[in-house]
Specification:
It comes from Novosphingobium album (ex Liu et al. 2023). The chain has six helices and 18 strands. The longest helix has 9 residues. Strands 3, 4, 5, 8, 9, 11, 12 and 15 form an eight-stranded mixed beta sheet that branches. The chain has a five-stranded mixed beta sheet with strand order 6-18-17-13-14, with no helix packed on it. By secondary structure, it is of the alpha+beta class. Strand 1 and strand 2 form a beta hairpin.
């Protein structure tokens, strides 16, 4: 078979202490998974069902990068999140079987063009342009699940230019990780290479050219991102 043109290589993420990298197949994201963040977005926290959206693998951006301020927006926000790397297939799982799929964890940033997202919400339209764009899925190196241990009271933080903006615990999530994986597996055949961004705590806010963002999750590699002027 002859292709008209070559596509970029499959995006991949470093794994702490290993030469092999994690190739990214799909990126799933869940919204409003921390009660305080749901409230700051004007929503009432609930456990009716997780709110899912996706980002293309082309949106992946590795920690340490310097990126141009995203196009098409004047109100782009940071959202610090725990990212789960899936390393085994699974479909229609019970929560007590879900964690067997987890290869590892990483810190991530779900960058959001908030003005575009809000306009879409107001019109009942999809969020795609607000969530899925180049460099919108920032990720730090992955730590193997065995090295991280059980999820619980680990702290998740985000600082902007040295000032803490987000500070919470992973235990604050409305939907636990086993519940999220199990729910997602009822709608998709999960497979190695899938990433799940598990939601952000309260304290989200705008970025600007010149900003340096630094994110931490206890036990994981730190994350950093520098914002350059728009192109």
């Amino acid at each position: 078979m002859t292709l008209l043109f070559a596509l970029p290589e499959t995006p991949s993420v470093p794994i702490q202490g290993e030469a092999a990298r994690f190739p990214v197949r799909r990126i799933f994201c869940v919204g409003r998974n921390y009660a305080a963040h749901a409230r700051e977005m004007g929503a009432t926290p609930n456990r009716d069902a997780p709110i899912w959206f996706t980002k293309a693998p082309a949106a992946l951006c590795l920690s340490g990068a310097t990126i141009a301020y995203p196009p098409g927006t004047t109100n782009c926000h940071y959202e610090m999140e725990l990212v789960v790397a899936i390393g085994a297939p699974g479909f229609r799982l019970a929560p007590d079987a879900a964690m067997a799929l987890v290869l590892g964890y990483a810190g991530g940033l779900d960058l959001t063009r908030r003005d575009l997202q809000n306009a879409a919400k107001d019109q009942g339209h999809p969020w795609d342009t607000g969530k899925d764009f180049e460099n919108a899925a920032v990720i730090a190196p992955i730590t193997r699940a065995a090295a991280f241990g059980a999820l619980g009271e680990q702290r998740i933080t985000l600082s902007r230019n040295g000032e803490t903006r987000q500070d919470a615990r992973l235990s604050d999530m409305i939907w636990s990780l086993p519940e999220l994986i199990a729910n997602l597996s009822t709608m998709y055949h999960l497979a190695p290479g899938d990433l799940i961004y598990t939601g952000t705590p309260a304290g989200v806010g705008p970025i600007a050219p010149g900003d340096v963002l630094e994110g931490t999750i206890t036990g994981l590699a730190p994350l950093s991102l520098t914002i350059a002027p728009a192109e």
